[in-house]
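Bumping with the actual sequence this time:
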Amino acid sequence: MLRLNIRHALPQTDIRIQHSRVDDSHMIPAQIHTNNRQARSNKTVTQVRMDIDSYPSRHSYGAKNNTDLTREFGQSGIADVQASTSRHAQNMWSFIDNAAKRGNYIQQQYKGKLFEEANKSGGIEARAIPDPRVTVSQPSQVVGESDLGDVTAEISTTPFASIQITTGSAETYLKDQGFIRRWVSQDKYDIYA
């Protein structure tokens, strides 16, 4: 009797899987940028300018300038010449009138002058000494502008992390097609075929 032998293998599928992975994941650190310009005063003080006229004080002590000296000596010279001329004229008239009289008139006259000079008492004159005149023509001033400086920090950040992702994949393929074989054997099944 004929026997129908069947041998088969089922088809096999397989899946190639590549998992997704994160290659590089990190936060970018914040970066700080600073501007550091220190404050500076940049101010200075100008010197005061004063004009001091001490001539009135010095004049009271006898120190005189050329103008005053010339004026004073000029007036004194004119007065001395006038007084001397007047005195000599009076003396001459006195000599003319009295020289012929009895006694030594000229000697007595000179003795009288000598005693008059000797008896003059020296005096001290007290006067107030005027203060020097001080005029401030330019007062001292603070000039310049202050630099307040700039000490600032600017921080820049990124809102997201830097992430490198390799996406995964899944691929199915037919590993074995499988088969169905049929044959006929006589009187028994062929189990080894």
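The tokens above came from a reply further down the thread. DSSP finds three helices and twelve strands in the chain.
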